[in-house]
Design brief:
283 residues; alpha/beta; Arc Repressor Mutant, subunit A; D-Maltodextrin-Binding Protein, domain 2; 3 domains; six-stranded mixed sheet; four-stranded mixed sheet; 9 helices; 24% strand; globular; disordered C terminus
Amino acid sequence: MMNIEYLQTYISVYENRSITKAGEELFLSKQTVLYHISQLEKIFKESLFVRNHSGCEPTVKGDSVYKYAVRIVDVYKKMMEDNVETNTIRVGIDSRILSDVAFKTINKLKKEFDVENTVFLTLKDLTSGMEKNEIDMFFCHDEGLVSYPFYRLMDDSIYLICSENSDYAGEEEISINEIKEVTVYYSEDDGGFLCNILEPLKNTCRFEKQTSEVVVGNNIYENKGIAFIHELNLKEFPKKSFLRYIRISDYKQPFGISYRSSEKTDELLKVLKTIVKGKIRAE
């Protein structure tokens, strides 16, 4: 399926002639940039770049895709801008954030405030959108990379998935520090939170990337591995009778809202402070 973010990444790689420079420009890892390009190549069933010692050069097909990608992204941005009513709060979402978390918060805000539009862009585009007065606030992970006020939130709704014969299967909750010497399976669909939660495990666990959640589920059972999932995604994860879901008791996923201070956003933040409770809360 075509994804607007894949096209944004493609444009950056094409214009920079470099995977590394595109990642730096878009605040994406090299692996994420390569994944976006590979997904487009699957769609078009043809190579779009040829990599060499100095970077990468587009193929003939790549040149053609670039022309259309620029038009599509430009139309998308204009469509989003035209769809915004002047009396609404315009909210953006960093595409690397676990979008379900942002959705949940936005849906709560919609019940209390006039929030009618969300925009999915890169962190670079979100910051640019703030500067051009195209959006009023946005959800992101990186407090240190934004120059606007930042309202910090924490999310502790992360679960460990293991098989019924795992050493962890009898637990209701588990500390992140208790997880050792085990294979952690993950897929590209796990969301931005995964990078943070894997960090404390990098010296004690092994990591294996899988093609889908279905494959992840099967490998958990067959190889006594584990995976991590956000509570909001539990319903979509392939249900198996042999799998167990255990809450991580001491892990908090940081994210937050960067905003331009105004009468509208100040009022919205007051509302946010009263409705963001429990699993997603102010810190």
